[in-house]
Design brief:
By secondary structure, the chain is an alpha/beta fold. It has eight helices and five strands, in the order ααβαβααβαβαβα.
Length: 190
Amino acid sequence: MDLRERVLEVAREAIEVKRRFFEGELEGVLEAARLLVGTLRGGGKVLIFGNGGSAAQAQHIAAELVNRFRKDRKGLPALALTTDTSVLTSVANDYDFSLVFARQIEALGEAGDLAWGMTTSGRSPNVVKALQVAKQRGLRTLAFSGGDGGQVKEVAELCLVVPSEETPRVQEVHITLAHILCELAEDELF
């Protein structure tokens, strides 16, 4: 297979995964938009977290909310729990890496906030534990996952599952979905 064929094959795979996700999860996407808008309209903040590429996406989404997405508007309260290396490393060192997000939810999360966890497998222990702690503290919980949804599907109030086992395809849908939610939130709030 030459490079041109490979590029087109990968693009077709990515498009097909997105098509299957949005056709199968449209109601869930609308519910996620309502959850995000309701949190922000009610004065809550959004706490976003994940590992690796999902950590980068958490930062990306927080920036879209705090700064702007498409509209010039006031900042929205969002925080990526993936950015404070002192907190992350002290929790990992003193307790366990599985608690790096849960401890931050304990410290920063309040009833009415939204805990938004991302994990391509649905099995990241630190994402699962953070969502469990968030529920115990009265936060709303949203998860983005892939494959069969993993453990986060059982823990989160709403879990949107990308029908793929391929990490890059799952991450591509997650960022597209996050952008859609940011756009819908701006449309509804401003």
